[in-house]
Specification:
globular; two-stranded antiparallel ribbon; single chain; six-stranded antiparallel sheet; mainly beta
């Protein structure tokens, strides 16, 4: 969360009363975007829109990080769970975060 910088981005949860929560930002240089999400289980999508004015291009690198709930123990830190080249169409990209656990936190980065 401490690495969020630039401008906050609007986040619309799929269900206004649901458990999934997120916060997102687009870097000041518009070459990267990130969202932190959690609170829900299963496969969840996060859609970044308004990217046509950024410098991400049409095929940004997508990285999904997982920070597992460590309970009362010290966390071993985040791990990369997926990296791939995404596709921006009409200024929008949707990233699926698979197999989420409601007790974990997920970071999605573009760029």
């Amino acid at each position: 969360y401490g690495q969020q910088n630039g401008n906050s981005a609007r986040v619309t949860p799929p269900d206004g009363n649901g458990a999934l929560q997120a916060v997102a930002s687009i870097a000041s240089d518009k070459k990267s975007a990130r969202a932190i999400m959690g609170g829900s289980s299963g496969n969840n999508n996060i859609t970044f829109s308004g990217l046509s004015s950024t410098s991400l291009g049409s095929s940004p690198k997508v990285t999904i990080w997982t920070l597992a709930n460590s309970g009362d123990s010290q966390s071993s830190g985040p791990t990369v769970t997926s990296t791939y080249t995404g596709s921006v169409s009409n200024g929008t990209i949707t990233v699926t975060v698979p197999n989420m656990s409601a007790n974990n936190v997920y970071l999605v980065t573009l760029g």
